[in-house]
Amino acid sequence: MTYKTLDDYIKQEFPSKYLRGDDLEGKEVVVTIGLVEKESIFNPQKNKHNNRITLYFHGKDKGVILGVERSKELKALFGNVAPEELVGKTVTLYARQKGPNNVLHIKAAHPIAAGLQLNQETPL
Q1: Statement: 18-117 belongs to CATH 2.40.50
Q2: Cα–Cα distance between 24 and 111 in angstroms, integer?
Q3: Residue 94 CB coordination number (10 Å)
Q4: Per-domain boundaries in the chain
Q5: Three-state secondary structure along the chain?
Q6: How far is Cα 2 from Cα 18, in angstroms, rounded to an integer?
């Protein structure tokens, strides 16, 4: 198999069930939170499993693991709510460069953009 780029190689040969900043392909994607689950996530740096909240979105396959930074972004948008209360909320996912990686972030969904971009063609 031939790959156009190393990013293509990484995506195809090392798929993840969780969304990465590179998956957005430089786009901002408006999504609606459909499910909030607590999952056991393996941390290879500490060689152990940690329980983390994961958000899943309507019409999308991949989830987003909530770490401290994304949790704070959601708190700034919706207040100090229980995680389950995020279901039905619409947000914008975007990536920002941090060192060699594109790191996934969450911000408010622009009301006009939400209607135009919701479930756009970016595969998640």
Answers
A1: yes
A2: 20
A3: 17
A4: 18-117
A5: CCCCCHHHHHHHHCCCCECCHHHHCCCCEEEEEEEEEEEEEEECCCCEEEEEEEEEECCCCCEEECCHHHHHHHHHHHCCCCHHHHCCCEEEEEEEEECCEEEEEEEECCHHHHHHHCCCCCCC
A6: 25
Residue type, 62: K
Q: Give the type of residue at 124.
A: L
pLDDT in tens, the chain (124 residues): 788 888 788 878 888 888 888 888 888 889 999 999 999 988 888 899 999 999 999 999 999 999 899 999 999 989 999 999 999 999 999 888 777 667 778 887 755 444 444 444 455 5
